[in-house]
């Protein structure tokens, strides 16, 4: 998703036009037709990829639109990941809503998905009985979300809105649930975003964040957006230059990565904090997670060695990668040594902290607003 920049707010309504209703009737007829009819070229083009639809629980309009939208990216190393992420929106949304419903009842509650992209989280909240609202700054993503909502016949309100727009956020009112997943690293103003999320959360409300971890060893080796080596260790301007030199594909739409404690500290100032552990996806087996991190360091070193002779990048970028990756390797190994030192305190505490810092690719965070 792109950087959150200013823009007009536009409410999107979901009313199926007559042609879509007719198309749905045609689809129902084709799905009941014999296999030989459904395999006719025209029928296949109309129905789209039925295997994908069955796998991801998506409808005809949305699946066909995603497939067409992604088609120019065929051949990119991240194509399968991008396609899976888009089509799995309903499955991912349903999983998150089920988990959040264990903490707070969803029926009748207001739920906001910030950076809703393909709309799956809003669809899941609506299907669970919530009053669902989704916002995004990207009009193309909103059009795709609209198709998903129409396919699912879900009572969802979508709006073209920048999360850093305080007035626009206030106009939406307060919410019992707010989800903001794989978004915060893209926003132009993190403090304003977190302040607006906290303000939009009703007292006793629940905030769910999914935040990529820039220092996770797997993401240092290949980030989750473009499979780019060590780009998560660079500031935005340096990352833009490196991205342009390497031509990773697409547009670099990442803003700033922060440490988890920085996000939590900013939210705590607005009365939003954890009840117990903030991170929900800490590894159950910390020693095994630590071993995986240590094993990946060899791959990171090998990638750094390759960058030293990479003719696509400038001398300045090469030197910067040497500095940042070298510093990262030194940091991780120093923390590993501290884990094994007899002089250190609680090994369990240190192991959990190490795993949270280097082994979790994307922190899954649940926080509450004080009543």
CATH architecture of the largest domain: 3-Layer(aba) Sandwich
CATH topology of the largest domain: Rossmann fold
Q: What is the beta-strand fraction?
A: 5-15%
Number of helices: 17
Record the strand order, biggest sheet.
1-4-3-2-5-6-8-7
Relative helix content: 40-55%
Number of strands: 8
CATH class of the largest domain: Alpha Beta
Low-confidence stretches: 1-13
The CATH homologous superfamily of the largest domain is named: Vaccinia Virus protein VP39
The assembly state of the depicted protein chains is single chain
Feature tags:
371 residues, Rossmann fold, 2 domains, 8-stranded mixed β-sheet, disordered N terminus
Secondary structure layout plus pairing:
Blueprint: E1 10-12, H1 18-32, H2 35-38, H3 41-47, H4 50-56, H5 60-70, H6 79-87, H7 89-101, E2 110-114, H8 120-127, E3 131-136, H9 139-152, E4 156-160, H10 166-172, E5 175-181, H11 190-200, E6 201-212, H12 217-221, H13 236-246, H14 260-268, E7 272-273, H15 286-307, H16 315-340, H17 347-358, E8 362-369
Helix pairs in contact: 5-6, 5-9, 7-8, 10-11, 15-16, 15-17, 16-17
């Amino acid at each position: 998703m792109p950087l959150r920049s200013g823009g007009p707010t536009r409410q999107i309504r979901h009313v199926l036009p007559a042609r879509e209703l007719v198309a749905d009737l045609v689809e129902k007829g084709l799905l009941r037709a014999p296999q030989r009819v459904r395999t006719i070229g025209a029928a296949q083009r109309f129905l789209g990829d039925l295997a994908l639809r069955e796998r991801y629980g998506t409808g005809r309009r949305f699946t066909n639109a995603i497939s067409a939208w992604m088609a120019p990216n065929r051949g990119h190393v991240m194509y399968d990941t991008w396609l899976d992420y888009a089509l799995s929106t309903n499955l991912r949304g349903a999983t998150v809503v089920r988990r959040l419903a264990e903490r707070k009842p969803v029926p009748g509650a207001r739920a906001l998905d910030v950076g809703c992209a393909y709309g799956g989280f809003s669809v899941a909240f609506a299907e669970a009985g919530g009053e669902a609202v989704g916002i995004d700054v990207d009009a193309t993503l909103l059009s795709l979300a609209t198709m998903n909502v129409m396919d699912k016949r879900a009572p969802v309100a979508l709006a073209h809105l920048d999360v850093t727009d305080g007035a626009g956020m206030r106009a939406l009112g307060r919410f019992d649930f707010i989800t903001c997943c794989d978004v915060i690293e893209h926003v132009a103003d993190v403090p304003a975003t977190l302040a607006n999320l906290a303000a939009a959360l009703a007292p006793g409300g629940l905030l769910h964040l999914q935040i990529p971890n820039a220092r996770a060893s797997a993401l240092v080796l290949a980030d989750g957006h473009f499979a780019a080596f060590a780009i998560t260790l660079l500031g935005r301007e340096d990352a833009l230059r490196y991205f342009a030199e390497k031509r990773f594909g697409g547009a670099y739409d990442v803003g700033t990565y922060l440490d988890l404690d920085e996000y939590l500290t900013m939210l705590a100032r607005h009365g939003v904090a954890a009840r117990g552990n903030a991170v929900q996806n800490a590894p159950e087996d910390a020693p095994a997670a630590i071993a995986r991190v240590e094993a990946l360091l060899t791959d990171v070193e090998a990638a750094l060695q390759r960058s030293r002779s990479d003719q696509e990048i400038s001398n300045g970028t090469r030197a910067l990668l040497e500095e940042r990756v070298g510093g990262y390797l030194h940091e991780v190994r120093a923390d590993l040594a501290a884990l094994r030192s007899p002089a250190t305190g609680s090994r369990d505490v240190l192991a959990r902290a190490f795993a949270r810092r280097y082994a979790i690719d994307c922190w899954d965070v649940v926080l509450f607003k004080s009543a």
